[in-house]
Amino acid sequence: MTFTPLNKLTKALVVGLSLSTVTAAAQEQQLDDVVKAGSDINQSANRSQQRIDKMNDQVVDKLQTYKALNKEIDGLTVYNQQMQAQLDNQLIELQQLGQSIEQVSIIERQISPLMARMITTLDTFVSLDVPFLPEERQHRLADLKGMMERSDVSTSEKFRRVLEAYQVEVDYGRTIEAYQGEIDIDGTPMNVDFLRIGRVSFLYQSRDGLQLGQWDQASQSWQKLPASYRTSVNKALRIARKQLAPDLITVPVNLAKSAAE
């Protein structure tokens, strides 16, 4: 086949266009590759940044945890120092308590005989005292004596009750009291009203108010009183029963007892 110059030119153009197309396609492919590579790089960078951010968050969390633990350690250090100081003080107190227990054991061995002597002394005092409330006072003494033999009552409770009994007897000496009872007058039992004014005057009056008497400590017997005391004794009885306000009263006084005191 014979080509004309025009055909050659056309062929050249076609070849040139084909080469341009191939070159453009190659460039476009390269551009796509570059874009894809850039996209891959960006994605990789994004993933790397995410990992960095995550690691940074972890580092921040660890740092905050570290700081919190340091504060807690500081607090525990102070707390341990305080507990150690308290423990040292408790050890000292424990040692002192041990010494006190030893002393208490010694005192307890000594206090039991003391209480026994105190009860005996109180018994003797009551038997020699003005004979008011005999049943009540003897019952109190019997309770104290029985209590001393009991193992279920602590030594401190025993001592408290002995002191309480002494306090009751002390109070009798500074109070006024009226109560009912029975006495034997000339061989005849008689219901009477008793009047106790401290320990300086112990009187009785019959229920009908006709008979009056005073306890004489020296003779250990009842002595009759004249009727002139009736009004004063009635007034004193009402004051003792809180039926009248406290006031001056005139009653006979056991002078022999007062002199002995």
Automatic annotation (TrEMBL):
Keywords linked to the UniProt accession: Coiled coil, Signal
Residues in the signal sequence: 1-26
InterPro entries hit by this protein: UCP028069
Coiled-coil region(s): 52-100
Pfam families reported for this sequence: DUF3450
Domain of life: Bacteria
Protein name: TonB system biopolymer transport component
